[in-house]
Design a protein that fits this description.
This protein is α+β, with helices and mostly antiparallel strands. It has a single domain, classed as PH-domain like. The longest helix is centred in the last third of the chain and has 29 residues. The chain starts with 17 loop residues before the first helix and ends with a helix.
Length: 206
């Protein structure tokens, strides 16, 4: 494994705490945009009961507060771990999701960074595998990473090592010779048994 100051093998790591701020700001901006397209035009077009306006405002504040609590719990549940031959991860508040992806399945490593994340100095590293190549959604998203370039190079080196290990085993991606020989021996034994059964049947017919 290549040397890394910020990411160690077999040691779980979490996203930067700035991820909480990033997710919260993005949600509030999206929520305000939805309000501008729905609630605000109604308020400007007609006179509404003051109580209804208070209820709408209280509801909006409650939704934002619930999201803030949820995003903190979501952050606490997140962790990633680099192992010798695979990456493991876990996240989820109400529904926990875990996953393991071997290095030899990884095909693409993309760093993504929106305006808010750029201002906070964090990025998302999206990993795609052979089964997910060409799709819009990555199989793993390592979110809220400060040293994204370093992590990408580290995983890239692990992918190379995994590929070299597959080439150096002498099989070239094919089944081992012993397995093929064993399969041929089994077929010969089955053929011999069938011949014996045929001879017994011929003797009985005679």
């Amino acid at each position: 494994m290549a040397d890394s100051e910020n990411f160690l093998l077999n040691v779980p790591f979490k996203p930067a705490a700035a991820l909480i701020t990033s997710l919260t700001i993005n949600f509030i901006l999206l929520f305000l945009f939805i309000l501008c397209c729905t609630a605000f035009p109604l308020l400007m077009a007609s006179e509404m009961d003051p109580l209804a306006m208070v209820l709408i405002g209280a509801g909006a504040i409650a939704i934002v507060l619930i999201f803030i609590v949820w995003v903190r719990l979501y952050y606490v549940s997140m962790w990633y771990e680099l192992r010798e031959d695979e990456i493991s991860w876990k996240r989820g508040v109400w529904f926990r999701t875990t996953g393991i992806v071997p290095y030899n399945r990884i095909t693409n490593l993309d760093i993504k960074q929106g305006p808010v994340m750029r201002a906070l100095g964090i990025s998302t590293l999206a990993l795609q595998t052979a089964g997910y190549s060409g799709q819009a959604v990555a199989e793993i998203r390592i979110e809220g990473i400060v040293h994204a370039e370093e992590l990408r190079e580290l995983i890239r080196s692990m992918v190379r090592q995994s590929g070299q290990g597959a080439d150096n085993d002498g099989t070239g991606g094919r089944a081992p010779v012993q397995s093929a020989t064993g399969s041929m021996s089994t077929n010969l034994l089955m053929l011999d048994e069938l011949k014996k059964i045929r001879l017994l049947l011929e003797q009985k017919i005679k």
